[in-house]
Design goal:
alpha+beta; 383 residues; 3 domains; elongated; Immunoglobulin-like; five-stranded mixed beta sheet; four-stranded mixed beta sheet; 15 strands; 13 helices; Glutaredoxin
């Protein structure tokens, strides 16, 4: 079943990641018609900085401090939508050193940053991804403009093969560049769709400096969450109100096999799999089997409830994951987010918990294929 996924040399990296704040500078040149100012937005490790540089006779200058290599957005006008659209802005990798930017005829799509090894790595990788990217850009635009819930979900399904093609190229880069900052950046996006063994393999192959960096520590945390949601671990005992306003806790179902179904109303493969889940539920519900669906619809309760009703899956238990976007954007802990406790990054993902509360199987993101679930349920409940 398809799933929906809810970016140097060694001495240089070690020096930059181990050192405190360092100066960086960018000397810019623009030909042709130029704006009055250019803007640069980036994180300096403590806060998000928005800097501006006046263009004089086709030249401009940025300067500041960085704790390590970071990403930044270069633009001619400030925008809240930091989408990386090359017509409006250029997405760059900044290093704590002297760099240069050139823009031809005032066209941001021609932006070239020199002096940043990480940026040059990314430019080469993006070149390899051009074939898939060119094909999915119209779909992304259609998704952005689509207001109909079901049609938007169908577009996300069409995007999946292109994202998977680019993912393969990202993993190839990580395998071949253990010391590159870009590998660490790419791991942040890839770890969510990796199996536990694969995530550990890729992460452990990175240089010590990369693993010990702030981003490296965050990836290690995500891998630990994936481990907590993998076979052999005790399932996190979440407690929250269900779709009917009744209190529900995983511990209430000790003595039963419980399938934790992570899904969303907008997830096409999730919805497509619901009829089969219904068949499994009817087959095993009288043999000590329960399903708890955990929805990624915290921002749209109506869509969640309508999907449950439309798909006829109200016969089992339903709760929301507990997503808090304010905390997530500020990288703050959220103990109420059930998905975090199980390392959920792609939908659908299902986790099977035995009567003692131990995880015995994982299907989908970071686990086996969904088709393996039927065999497992027959093994433990088919007698």
């Amino acid at each position: 079943m398809k799933k929906i996924i809810s970016v140097l040399s060694l001495p240089l990296v070690i020096t930059q990641l181990a050192t405190a704040q360092q100066k960086f500078s960018i000397a810019g040149t623009v030909t042709g018609q130029a704006p009055a100012k250019y803007y640069l937005q980036y994180s300096n490790g403590e806060k998000y900085v928005t800097d501006s540089a006046v263009v004089t006779n086709g030249r401009f200058q940025f300067a500041g401090i960085l704790p390590q290599i970071t990403t930044g957005v270069f633009s001619a006008a400030l925008s809240r939508n930091l989408s990386g659209n090359r017509k409006e802005q250029a997405y760059l990798f900044l290093e704590p050193k002297a760099m240069t930017i050139t823009v031809e005829n005032g066209d941001l799509s021609t932006t070239v940053l020199k002096g940043s090894v990480s940026n040059e790595d990314n430019v080469r990788l993006e070149k390899e991804k051009e074939a898939a990217t060119a094909q999915y850009k119209p779909l992304l635009e259609a998704l952005h403009n689509e207001k109909d819930h079901d049609k938007a979900a169908a577009i996300r399904e069409q995007l999946a093969p292109y994202f998977e093609a680019n993912s393969r190229l990202s993993r190839k880069f990580i395998r071949e560049h253990h010391d590159a900052f870009l590998s660490l950046y790419l791991m942040r996006f890839e770890v969510g769709s990796m199996s536990l063994d694969s995530a550990k393999y890729y992460f452990n192959s990175l240089s010590t400096a990369l693993k010990q960096s702030k981003d490296g520590q965050q990836i290690a945390k995500e891998i630990k969450q994936l481990e907590n949601g993998s076979p052999g671990s005790i399932a996190f005992n979440f407690s929250k109100k269900d779709i009917n306003g009744q209190q529900l806790a995983l511990a209430d179902f000790r003595g039963k096999y419980v399938l934790l179904d992570f899904w969303a109303s907008w997830c096409v493969p999730c919805r497509a799999g619901n009829p089969h889940l219904l068949e499994l539920y009817k087959q095993y519900k009288d043999k000590g089997f329960e399903i708890i669906s955990i929805s990624d619809d915290d921002r749209n309760h109506d869509a969640w409830k309508k999907a449950v009703e439309k798909d006829g899956i109200g016969v089992w238990k339903h709760v929301l994951r507990g997503l808090d976007m304010d905390k997530r954007m500020k990288n703050l802990p959220n103990p109420d987010d059930t998905s975090d406790h199980f390392g959920i990054h792609s939908l659908p993902t299902q986790i099977l918990v035995d009567p003692k509360g131990v995880i015995i199987a994982r299907y989908g993101g970071g686990g086996e294929e969904h088709e393996a679930m039927d065999k497992k349920l027959k093994e433990v409940l088919g007698k």
